Amino acid sequence: MSGMWFVVGLPIVVLAGLALYTVFVMRKIGTPTRGDKIDLNERPNTALVVIDVQEDFTRNGGSTAFEPAYRDAALAVINQHVSSARSAGNEVVFIRHVFRNWLAILIIRLIAKGIGTPGRKGLEIDRSMEVDEAPVFEKAVGDSFSSPSFEDWLETRKVGKLILTGLDSCHCVQLTAKGALARGYLVEIRDAATLTATPEKWSLLKEELGDSGAVIV
């Protein structure tokens, strides 16, 4: 009898454990990071941050695909900001998302054709972007501050103000904004230079971010 309960119970325990781990992974991907507070007096510089503008996300043909005119208009505005930042002597940095957790990779491959998973050509920055010599940092969860190299670069460049662009406004952009605000950065989000698949949610998040100290223009 005990053997039968073991046979029946083991799959249940395994499935329950997998379900809990799935929740943990999804929460980690969607939770802003925490970090040490910066001293703005020692961080006089500004950086334009372009988040996740990769071919897998900008040009995928799935259910979450952006309408081409909407996408192209936002990408053009991002490039305008890149050009303006360089002309003003500000830093420009690109962030690239690659799912690295095995379960996240499995889920994305099952439900979203594997976009953002290792080995895909679509991980490259969108063909329209004027990357030039700008650094490109990789992250595996929503908040760009999950990349220690990105945070170290900001410290080296004495950056205290971030201008955020890219996608998705309701996910990685807002999570990066919250990670930055938690560390004491000044944060601006250029609305016309962002993309989102859920504009109705973005309207609510903009209010929340504004109340937290971000400036959305």
SSE order, one letter for each helix or strand = HEHHEHEHEHEHE
Give average pLDDT, whole number: 89
User: In terms of structural class, how would the helical and strand content be classed?
Assistant: alpha/beta
**Strand line-up across the major sheet:** 3-2-1-4-5-6
Query: Which segments are poorly predicted (pLDDT under 50) over 5 or more consecutive residues?
Result: 4-8, 10-15
Main beta-sheet annotation: 6 strands, parallel
**Helical element count?**
7
In total, the number of strands is 6
User: What is the molecular shape?
Assistant: globular
**What proportion of the residues is helical, as a percent range?**
40-55%
Strand-residue proportion: 15-25%
Q: What Rg is obtained from the alpha carbons, in whole angstroms?
A: 19 Å
Spatial separation of the terminal alpha carbons: 67 Å
